[in-house]
Amino acid sequence: MYSFGATNADGSVHAFVFGFESECQHPYNNFAFATIDLKSGKATLVACVAKDVVIDTDPTVGAFSPDGTLFATGSGNSETGVVQLVVLDPTTGEAVLNSSLPGLKKSLGVSNVAPFINVWGVSWTE
Where would I find the H helices in 1-126? Predict the structure, then answer.
């Protein structure tokens, strides 16, 4: 379990997880959304991340929106300089937004000679 949302009335949480390989069968990684029963630890699959979505490097950098209707994850590859922001619908696993954040490195003043950049956190405001 990489990230989880607010606790539901029954004591479970919605979570962004790795697993369900036989159900999701993603060509590169098996990320999914699940409901986790905190008392038993049982995970119930809600949706697999769509097969056309690739999470580049760090699935631990993510957060559910305050109302739980969206999940955002960001990554940065310090070797290639690739930056990514993906916003997913946790009920379907489909991408609502999948951006390489063009112009971010320039706005931050990151050198093209040393394209090191990492996304360290993702959060929502209300």
Answer: 21-24, 104-108
Separation CA 59–CA 62 (nearest Å): 7
pTM over 0.90: no
Q: Which of 89, 83, 77, 88 is nearest to 107 (CA)?
A: 83
Lowest mean pLDDT among 7-11, 37-41, 70-74, 99-103: 99-103
Least confident of 5-14, 18-27, 77-86: 77-86
DSSP secondary structure code for residue 57 in this structure: S
DSSP-derived secondary structure letter, 71: E
| Type and span of the H or E element at 96 | strand 95-99
Tokens of 83: 């930056």
> H-helix or E-strand containing 86?
strand 83-88
> What is the distance between the alpha carbons of residues 98 and 22, in angstroms, rounded to a whole number?
25
The pLDDT value given to residue 83: 81
CA distance 33 to 1: 9
